[in-house]
Amino acid sequence: MPWSRVLGQDRAIDTLSHALESERVAGTYLFHGPSGSGPRAAALAFGQALLCERRGTPTGPAGDACGSCLACTKSARLIHPDLHVTLPFPKTSKQADKDDRPSDYSDRMAALAAEPYASADYRQRAALGSDGASNKQVAHRRIPMEAFRREMSFVPVEGRYVVGVLLEADRIRTEAANALLKLLEEPEARVVLILTAERVENVLPTILSRCQRVRFDPLAPDVLEAALVARAGVPATEAAVVARMADGSFTKALEVWGSESMQAHRALAVQFVREAYTGRPDRIAPVVQSAQKLGRESLKGWLDLVSIWIRDLVLVRAGAVAAVVNVDQTEAVQKFVAALPKADLEAMASVVAQAVDAIEGNAHAGLVLTALAFALRDAMHGVSDGLLVAPLDAA
Q1: What is the model's pLDDT at position 95?
Q2: Residue 164, strand partner residues
Q3: The pLDDT value given to residue 260
């Protein structure tokens, strides 16, 4: 059954299943929640259920798709003529009146059909198979949105509904929103529009007010761990670590597992903290040089690993050993905490967060990491002011 592809989220699935069973389906939905928690997977599963030929029949399910009828197989591959899925993409042409979908657009849609939690969108992947995020603005623009509106204006060809899935609705440009508003203001009886968004506050109020909202929460580590084993073939011992590094996102969990350099990056993060404790420039400099080579986007992810290590220190000091992310390094974390009784862990977390902000602001990576190393040294010795860089007017 397609709902089985959606991890966790019992409350959201119950709401949508009941709508299907009672045939009280709203015209427009907004599935919102953290990236990788399930809005996209649920939108595709709900669209498949709406178009299922056997749903509601004596031999079919009531609140789910059967998964085996011709309509379901077409929907699963995103080729059903009444299912229209659109993804925001970076501009590839200077012509304002052109629908300039990138050449790999269909490949990305196929990847999402195969695994709705995959990192196949343009915001997270500049190119399929790469680790780099796009450095171009990713958005829904006017011409593609008008094409989407036209598709949604046709009567159903094969199914009971015309279903539109607009992914990342919080990335609709203002000039593109007018085409969507025409759909929302003049809804057809057999049209269902499903929007997904990570940040509700970034969805235009004129759109938001016309949607029935369905919230998705971060996924629990045990849910992620089980899914990594069952769906990605991750060994159980490694799945436990990856699940705790994913911040409630199966998409991020798949990214972490798929990254060949993750273990090396994690080791470098621990080494950075240890060398920072020494305060010796000759030992800090090589680690900083290695981290600099990661590139700006990967460097922010690497700093997240430093932050996770520090969070583990906080958890162990608080006695919450079972919640440690780096479960395979629990003993090392415990020894670290025992050796640093005066460490200001709150200050350590704060200066790492300030370093991430500095990197996002295009500060020189080498200078930021060097400053961070010495700020961490002070915090680990219990003499920190909680600042990455002292203000110029400090006494």
Answers
A1: 63
A2: 84, 193
A3: 63
Contact by Cβ (8 Å): 170, 121: no
CA–CA distances in Å: residue 36 to residues 32, 217, 250, 260, 281: 11, 10, 5, 20, 40
Q: At 106, give phi and psi (nearest 5°).
A: -65, -35
164: tokens are 């539109």
Distances (CA, A) of 99 to 88, 140, 145, 345: 12, 11, 9, 51
pLDDT (average), residues 294-316 = 85
Mean pLDDT value across the chain: 88
Question: In the chain, helix, strand, coil percent, each to 5?
Answer: 55, 10, 40
Give the start-to-end residue ranges of the domains of the chain. Answer: 2-217, 260-380
pLDDT digits (tens, 9 = 90+) for 90-102: 887 666 667 778 8
Q: What does the DSSP assignment read for 291-340? A: HHTT-HHHHHHHHHHHHHHHHHHHHHHTT-GGG-S-GGGHHHHHHHHHH-
Question: Which residue type, as a one-letter code, is found at position 214?
Answer: V
Read off the pLDDT of residues 117-133 as tens digits, 9 standing for 90 and up. 998 888 877 677 666 66
Strand boundaries in 178-278, DSSP class E: 191-197, 212-215
pLDDT score at 394: 47
* ∠ Cα 167 172 176 (to 5°): 120
Q: Which residues lie across from 193 on neighbouring strands?
A: 28, 164
* Type of residue numbered 388: L
For range 75-83, the mean pLDDT: 95
The amino acid that residue 174 corresponds to is T
User: Do residues 196 and 43 touch, judged by C-beta distance below 8 A?
Assistant: yes
Expressed in angstroms, the distance from the first to the final Cα of the chain is 66
Rounded-to-10 torsion of CA 249, 255, 256, 261 = -160
Query: Is domain 2-217 classified as CATH 3.90.1150.180?
Result: no
The 191-197 sheet, strands edge to edge: 83-86, 162-166, 191-197, 28-32, 212-215
At 82, give phi and psi (nearest 5°).
Answer: -105, 5
The span from the CA of 26 to the CA of 376, in Å, is: 52
Question: CA-to-CA distance for 308 and 305, rounded, in angstroms?
Answer: 5
